[in-house]
Amino acid sequence: MRNFYILLFSFIIFLFCANKINSQEIKNIQNIPNKDKNNIGQVSKQVNNLSQNNLTYDNMLHNQNVKPIISTSVLDKLPNIQSSITQLSPLQFGSFVATNGGGTIHISYSGERYSTGNVILLYDDSNFSPAIFEVIAPSNTLVQIIFDKKCVLKNKFGNEIIVYLDELNTGNLFVTPENAENGFLVYLGGYINVISSAETLTGEYVGNINLTIVVK
Questions:
Q1: How far are the Cα atoms of 21, 43, 49, 51 from residue 28, in angstroms, in the given order?
Q2: Residue 182, exposed/middle/buried by CB under 10 A (0-12, 13-18, 19+)?
Q3: Is the alpha carbon torsion for 18, 89, 8, 209 positive or negative?
């Protein structure tokens, strides 16, 4: 007996552009007290006050909520167990500032966030987390989860951002745990490339990925 399930999620990213900032101004941003970072608008106001030349951020993505649109197919060999997958939390990149040259922002499946290149992570209590899914499947059964490794996001102007997805914390081919019929959690991380360019437009970016679960 073969059962197929379809579940939909959405990738959403909000991008805000601004001008360039120099190394001293970056240090000033980093030195803003954590208590003043609870609101990104407050941080923006303080950064703007660092210069008399209308200083602003360069390419800031704020509160990234990555919610994958996932078409989920489940191939179930055990008709008495209804396999399914449900997203409990989206992949979120949080708040940060990208300066000259840009860089990458990573979220691991364990929830760690780090950056490369000229990206400053802002710890303003914004949500950043891996995507979390609940899977229901037969216990002690080999399961394969197949999904696209990247997703192209576009805004209404046609500008693109690419989200690259990592492996699940379980690996993409694994044996389900005991009591998997009651549900268990899997975690998915990823990263995005951020460029520092006046051509990058602000707005909402959306896209799709496909995810297939095969119960062996």
A1: 10, 11, 11, 11
A2: exposed
A3: positive
Q: What does residue 205 show for φ and ψ, rounded to 5 degrees?
A: -115, 130
Nearest Cα neighbor of 94 from 115, 64, 125, 68 is: 64
Q: How far apart are CA 145 and CA 172, in angstroms?
A: 5
User: What pLDDT shows up at residue 107?
Assistant: 94
CB 13 within 8 A of CB 61: yes
Give the three-class secondary structure for 68: coil
Question: And the tokens for 91?
Answer: 């992949």
Q: What is the pLDDT of residues 109-149, one digit of tens each?
A: 999 999 999 888 888 766 788 989 999 999 999 999 988 89
Confidence of residue 27 (pLDDT cuts 50, 70, 90): low
Residue with token string 């390419």: 59
Average of per-residue pLDDT values in the chain: 69
On the question of pLDDT at 43 being above 60, the answer is no
pTM: 0.66
H/E run at residue 81: none
Ramachandran quadrant class, 26 (left: phi over 0; alpha: psi -120 to 50; beta: rest): alpha
Query: Is the separation of the CB atoms in 207 and 8 below 8 Å?
Result: no
The number of beta carbons lying within 10 Å of the beta carbon of residue 137 is 23
Contact 153, 91 (CB under 8 A): no
